[in-house]
Design a protein that fits this description.
Blueprint: H1 10-43, H2 50-54, H3 63-86, H4 91-116, H5 120-139, H6 149-168, H7 187-193
Helix pairs in contact: 1-3, 1-4, 1-6, 3-4, 4-5, 5-6
Length: 196
Amino acid sequence: MSEPTPGTAEPEAETGEALRSCHAARATSAASRAVAVFHHIERHPHTPDAAADTGRPQGEPPRDNTLWKAEHAARVSVQALAVLAESAPDPAADSRCARNAAASAAQAAQMGQAHDGDGEDAVAACRAALRASQAAAAAAGRGALGTDPALNAAADEAEAAAVAAAERAGWMRPGQRLPEVRAGMRSPELMSMMHF
């Protein structure tokens, strides 16, 4: 058996790091969306007559329940990001963290729409968040395990579209992003950084 050529493992390691960066960026963006929706609902409480103003049907969840669900989704997305930051690069695991963050962001977006009503921008932002979640799930799926370039690119594109839609809905400020999450950052640090 021949000896491995020195340096042959390096491209594989670089690929792992590149994939980590891809999935981490998407997870960070999704967590940013989830947290932004939570803070949007928190900053804009409904008055007793607000349902009539926003077109929110009376049967939809009351504001307090909506806020609680949005906060829970945001916290879960942050926890997914923390798991990624605390672990060594692994495309399959990293893509699952990005998938979980996107799924939580989609749940937060549903609460954003419940809060804001069925206006065009809120509906579009919710749909874009659901598409981003589906694309992230496909990238992390059994056949891809976070390594398929086409599925990763599609997930990145869907995430960018979800951010743009959230900005149009007023859930995020243009350019609003989390600070860079360094390797090894723990969940309590992230919670503090996101003002929980």
